[in-house]
Amino acid sequence: MGSPNGGIIGVVNPTSFGKCTVTSKTSSGTLTTQPGTRLVNALVVAGGGGGGGMPSSPNHIGGGGGAGGANITENISVCGAASYPITIGAGGAAGGSGTPGTCGNGGGSGSSTIAVLGGTTITNCGGGGAGGGPPGRACGLPGGSGGGGSSANSVPASVPTGIAGQGNSGGKGTDAAPSALSAGGGGGASTAGATGNPATSGGNGGNGINVAPYFGAAPQPFYLSDVPTAGPVSSGIFAGGGGGGGGPALSQGNGGDGGGGDARTTGPNSGYGGVQNSGGGGGGTGSTPSKEGGAGGSGIVIVKELNKASGSWPLRAQFSARKSGTWVQGFESVDVDYLVVAGGGGGGFDTGGGGGAGGYRTSAYGPSPLNSGTKISLAVGPSPITVGAGGAGSTGSPPGVGTQGNPSIFSTITSTGGGGGATNSLNAATTGGSGGGAGQSIGCTGAAGNTPPVSPSQGNPGGDTTPGEANRAGGGGGGATAAGTAGRGDPGRAGGVGGAGAPNSISGCAVFYAGGGGSGSSTPAPTGGAGGAGGGGPGGAGPVAATAGTVNTGGGGGGGPGNVGGGGGAGGSGIVIIRAPGSASLSVSPGTNTVATLPAPAGGCKVATFTVSGTITNNTTG
């Protein structure tokens, strides 16, 4: 019998054929893919920020609006003949001229553009509004790209920033003699806005992103048309910053390539608007007082449905699939990084020890040596994820220790729940990912962490009590990077501090996880022990109750206050985060869990975040 491959040795798998169809969405609605499409590239551009206005007096100069956040995401997995929602962000309002009802002369920020394609949601933020002349806001606002500052914003506390992977900072203004006042240009998707130059001109807007390498060289029907009052767009450039205004003796700032509006000195409205559907920032005002800035340009989404195939194919099957446009690809496993944090332990009762943090295990993005775990090969299809709940705090009925947290599990990685904090009696704290802190009693010690032992370590021990000191407090719970500290007695009665957790940027932002809970203290101590960075709950003192560990950090609960029989705080629940290459196609359930695409420079990596137990499904095609 002949082989199903017609005698050709190779992978027998379905294929995909997107016909290189390009769709441009200039208003909100739905985008429907071709029947054979399985992969797309997408440009997502948010609305640009408005340019700054100029009051009648004093004669300051308005800055250029920041471009809307913009980036290109490649190889997004989608279904054929499926409709996906697209929301196009509006441009920001023009800054006013100081009349009632305006935005204090500063330009308004643009609105976000959101594209939901397959299991991937891309959200780019609107451009920051520019600063205007006083009275009102002089500084530019942060956004996809930051707005430029007015000439009254020559020494800002901080430059209005853009979002990494979406845009760049706006330029600051320069305060000088009235004829030489100059404002900053708005940031663009590729470059920052320029600072106003009192010797020559207002700051130029930053340049936008050139999409021709992804969607083809100009001319293309979905590229925009150039206008004489804004940066060029017809060659496939989007998201340029608006130009900043200049004083009577200066030139006006030009809008950045990609539809940024130019600054202007004459006419009914000083600043020119950003080009519609370019995400360009609006231009600022020039030397004539009582004028408005230009409005920001609205956003756009452009999607290209890809042709892509792999493997070996019989000629008849290949011909048939090509003819019908249904040549889909096979599936493959993908290597992923992970962060697995278990639930934190509950705090102890009545001057009790702090709960230990949930076990912390990761393959990357955190401090060394904790980040030396090995990547996991995520198999095709569904895989279960367990997110551990935090342990209950001890209430004293009966007066036991805090409850240990529950484990979090992904594939072969299990992080152990944090240990419970001890009470003021001889009850011992319990071990766990990190150990619970000791209670008040003489000779009590904190429980061990990293139990059961793994390498690299998943946690640290809880803190002890301090021998020989009267009215001593309990020990803090252990954390991912440090042990809990010992509680002290008279005169301060300071509660033990929870051990510090660990920062991890696997989600795209550095967040601390797995901090230990602080111990409880007795009256007259003003406060209990502080919780460790990473969600550890502070301990109670006197009438102040213990605090629970923060949800989805694995932080330990605080120990209960003394002299009032106070209960301990509950441990915080854990979290599981999985990071895959941009080419991966992932979906998650239930809906409280999410999949996001990180912008550059993370290369479009996919990040699946589990705040509750569920399932991750790998649909990656080869």
Characterize the largest beta sheet: strand count, sense, and whether it forms a barrel: 6 strands, antiparallel
Give the CA-CA distance, first to last residue. 28 Å
Per the principal axes of the C-alpha atoms, what is the gross shape?
flat
**What fraction of residues sit in β-strands?**
15-25%
Radius of gyration: 29 Å
Overall tally of domains? 2
Low-confidence stretches: 1-16, 99-103
Quick summary of this structure?
By secondary structure, the protein is an all-beta fold. It folds into two domains: 14-330, no CATH class; 335-622, no CATH class. The chain has helices at 212-215, 315-324; strands at residues 16-17, 22-25, 29-32, 39-45, 70-77, 83-87, 113-117, 120-124, 209-210, 237-238, 300-305, 307-308, 334-341, 360-362, 376-378, 381-386, 408-410, 413-415, 502-504, 511-513, 575-580, 586-589, 594-597, 606-610, 614-618.
Structure description:
It is a single chain. This protein is mainly beta and 622 residues long. The chain folds into two domains: 317 residues, no CATH class; 288 residues, no CATH class. Helices cover 2% and strands 17% of the residues. The chain has two helices and 25 strands. Strands 13, 14, 15, 21, 23 and 24 form a six-stranded antiparallel β-sheet that branches. The longest helix has 10 residues. The radius of gyration is 29 Å and the shape is flat. The relative contact order is 0.13.
